[in-house]
Structures are given as C-alpha cells and as structure tokens.
C-alpha cells in the first residue's frame, strides 16, 4: 500500500468535503438572509398599514369635528333667521 497516495486521496476527500460544507453553509446562509429580509419586509408593511390606519382614523375624526362645528353654526344661523322672520310677522300683525 502506497502511504503517500493514501494521504493524497485523504487530503483530496477533505477538500471535497470542505467545499461541500462551505457551499451548504453559504446557501443556507443566503436562505437565512432571504428569510430575514422577507420577515423584515412583512414587518415594515405591517407597520406602514398601522400608520396609515391611524392617520386615516385621525383624518376622519378631525373632519367629523369640523363638520360638527360648521353644522352647529349653520343651524344656529338658520334658527336666528327664522326667529327674526317670525318676530317681524308678529309685529306686522300687531299693526293691523
């Protein structure tokens, strides 16, 4: 048996196994990085959806309050005009 040849074959096998291991680690590492990136994207999308949901809710609350004030002002204005018209009508009847 040739010892030098055996050592050479063992070294070559070690190299093959090392390359396979490095390749597997590299691929799994890439897969892990891709999974982490996808998870990060999902978290970002969820955060944006929540921010948008809160922003729209705030917008609608602000609009509702604005409309409430405007409508209250319009109602008061129309009620005052109606009172003035009724008062004028009453004065007109008093003159007859």
Total of DSSP H or I helical runs spanning 4+ residues: 1
Portion of residues in helices? Answer: over 70%
- Alpha-beta content class: mainly alpha
Determine the strand fraction and express it as a percent band.
under 5%
What's the order of the H and E elements?
Answer: H
Low-confidence stretches: none
End-to-end separation:
141 Å
Calculate the mean pLDDT score and round it: 88
Radius of gyration: 41 Å
Per DSSP E runs of 2 or more residues, the count of β-strands stands at 0
Oligomerization:
single chain
Shape: rod-shaped
The main β sheet shows up as: none
Structure explained in plain terms:
This protein has one helix and no strands. It is mainly alpha-helical. The longest helix is centred in the middle third of the chain and has 93 residues. The termini are far apart.
Care to give the gist of this entry?
The chain is mainly alpha-helical and about 100 residues long.
Keywords:
mainly alpha, 96 residues, 97% helix, single chain
How would the blueprint of this fold be written?
Blueprint: H1 3-95
């Amino acid at each position: 048996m040739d010892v030098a040849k055996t050592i050479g074959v063992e070294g070559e096998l070690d190299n093959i196994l090392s390359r396979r291991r490095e390749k597997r680690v590299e691929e799994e590492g890439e897969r892990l990085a891709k999974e982490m990136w996808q998870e990060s994207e999902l978290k970002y999308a969820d955060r944006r959806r929540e921010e948008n949901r809160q922003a729209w809710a705030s917008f609608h609350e602000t609009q509702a309050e604005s409309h409430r004030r405007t409508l209250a002002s319009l109602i008061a204005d129309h009620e005052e005009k109606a009172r003035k018209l009724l008062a004028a009508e009453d004065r007109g009847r008093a003159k007859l």
